[in-house]
């Protein structure tokens, strides 16, 4: 079983923000479980990072599948006696359509990953998280989830229409608030990575992946007097 190392699991971690989060957390001396849907890509990412001398192991996990998540929990429980940090990073973007042209099936497909997948994974790993002395959950959200920003014509979020993606992240923020109030002793927060250049935006983002991961790392490494139930980017609190 585990020694005194902090144990973290990061979903959607075979590339981009997830992979950078794994690298940074493992670089702090943690054991990090790199979770990804695609076994080949996930194992390659884990082996590449492990080759840098980092303590990283691969776990296959498809956030949209009850069976996959259950198998992942079983695999993790066979390797470690607890989970200290869960980073729900897995997410997808949708087509850039006018909201009036958005069909419910498009919403459903995206919500299955960005909303239901986060709840599915969190619920399944709660028993292992409850065994930690300092359990932390980080949900990777977006500034597009901010109703305050959306209503401010001076903000870029106000002019960016993404009914499916923005609403899914707004729902995720409320899920964070609910979990934070329901789980005493936990630190549950939402991270806004900004607009990093990743595959999701075809590498058109204005931030580096390292900058995007800053808020995730801060929330994953909170100490006992850190906040819970909040929404933060790399510079501090983000308005709801």
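-> sequence recovered:
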């Amino acid at each position: 079983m585990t020694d005194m190392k902090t144990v973290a699991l990061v979903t959607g971690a075979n590339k981009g923000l997830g992979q950078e989060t794994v690298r940074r957390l493992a670089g702090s001396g943690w054991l990090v479980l790199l979770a990804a849907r695609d076994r080949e890509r996930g194992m390659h990412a884990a082996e590449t990072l492990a080759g840098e001398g980092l303590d990283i192991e691969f776990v296959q996990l498809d956030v949209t599948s009850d069976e996959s998540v259950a198998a992942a929990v079983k695999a993790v429980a066979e390797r470690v006696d607890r989970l200290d940090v869960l980073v729900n990073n897995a997410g997808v973007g949708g087509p850039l359509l006018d909201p009036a042209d958005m069909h419910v099936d498009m919403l459903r497909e995206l919500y299955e990953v960005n909303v239901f997948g986060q709840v599915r994974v969190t619920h399944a790993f709660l028993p292992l998280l409850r065994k930690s002395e300092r359990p932390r959950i980080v949900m990777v959200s977006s500034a597009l989830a901010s109703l305050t920003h959306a209503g401010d014509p001076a903000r870029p979020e106000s002019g960016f229409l993404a009914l499916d993606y923005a609403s899914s992240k707004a729902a995720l923020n409320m899920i964070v608030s609910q979990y934070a109030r329901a789980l005493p002793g936990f630190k549950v927060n939402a991270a806004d990575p900004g607009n990093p250049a990743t595959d999701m935006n075809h590498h058109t983002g204005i931030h580096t992946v390292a900058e995007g991961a800053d808020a995730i790392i801060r929330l994953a490494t909170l100490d006992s007097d850190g906040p819970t139930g909040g929404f933060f980017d790399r510079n501090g609190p983000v308005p709801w």
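The beta strands are 7-10, 31-36, 56-60, 85-88, 136-140, 187-191, 231-233, 236-237.
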